[in-house]
């Protein structure tokens, strides 16, 4: 079956702009989590959505938001971009059932803010 | 809050050798999951191996095995008969059960290079 798909793969934006990233989970998976990866801070959890509801949120400012649609696809939005938002954004999906702990990752979206 | 520490930023071994990557973590939870993920140059994170804290037996997946020491809060990964394709960043990760919630706490990673 198809894996986790993230679009676009690469993005260049200017400071102050906003950006929307998309993640399509594996078919049947209802949980989507987002992570930010930077050389300095490593991999940090942004938030998780399950059944269109945000279930967990990491320690990021309110400029970072997301949503999930009825088909489990998720979008992440960053407003008023800052240079420090340049990162690889990874999306992971899971079935989120009892005992199911494996997260499947997409290839990420590389965001560069100039 | 949980923390995960990988003390080896980089490691390099020859093909066919055995290599061990270290990971320690800090938590007050008694039940949790630990993972090793691999991130090759393609950037896609791939699950290598998983350990449930309530299981005393160390997990094994082909050439990959772990040494899980719960009291010491240590979770090392051993790669036997290393191959060129094992070259990647390796991340140790922690997750506590929360109704199946997917919130992974990652270490800083170890860059592993397998030399021919």
Your description of this structure?
The complex is a heterodimer of chains A (114) and B (116). Chain A has 114 residues and is mostly beta strands. Chain A is built from no helices and 11 strands. With 116 residues, chain B is mainly β. In chain B, the strands form 3 sheets. In chain B, strands 2, 5, 6, 10, 11 and 12 form a 6-stranded mixed β-sheet that branches. A 4-stranded antiparallel β-sheet of chain B has the order 3-9-8-7, with no helix packed on it. In chain B, a hairpin with a 2-residue loop joins strand 7 and strand 8. The chains are: A mainly beta (114), B mainly beta (116).
What would you say about this model in short?
The complex is a heterodimer of chains A (114) and B (116). Chain A has 114 residues and is mostly beta strands.
Key descriptive features of the protein:
heterodimer, A: 114 residues, mainly beta, 7-stranded mixed beta sheet, 4-stranded antiparallel beta sheet, 53% strand, globular, B: 116 residues, 6-stranded mixed beta sheet
Order of helices and strands of chain A: EEEEEEEEEEE
| Percent helix of chain A | under 10%
Radius of gyration of chain B: 14 Å
Count helical runs of chain B: 0
Morphology of chain B: globular
Query: SSE order of chain B in H/E notation?
Result: EEEEEEEEEEEE
Overall body shape of chain A: globular
Q: What is the average per-residue confidence, as pLDDT of chain A, rounded to a whole number?
A: 93
Quick one: biggest sheet of chain B? 6 strands, mixed
Element layout with pairings:
The complex is a heterodimer of chains A (114) and B (116).
Chain A: E1 5-7, E2 10-13, E3 19-24, E4 31-38, E5 42-50, E6 53-57, E7 64-68, E8 74-78, E9 87-94, E10 104-105, E11 109-113
Chain B: E1 3-5, E2 10-14, E3 19-21, E4 24-26, E5 33-39, E6 46-52, E7 60-61, E8 64-69, E9 74-79, E10 88-95, E11 105-106, E12 110-115
Parallel strand pairs in B: 2-12
Antiparallel strand pairs in B: 1-4, 3-9, 5-6, 5-10, 7-8, 8-9, 10-11, 10-12
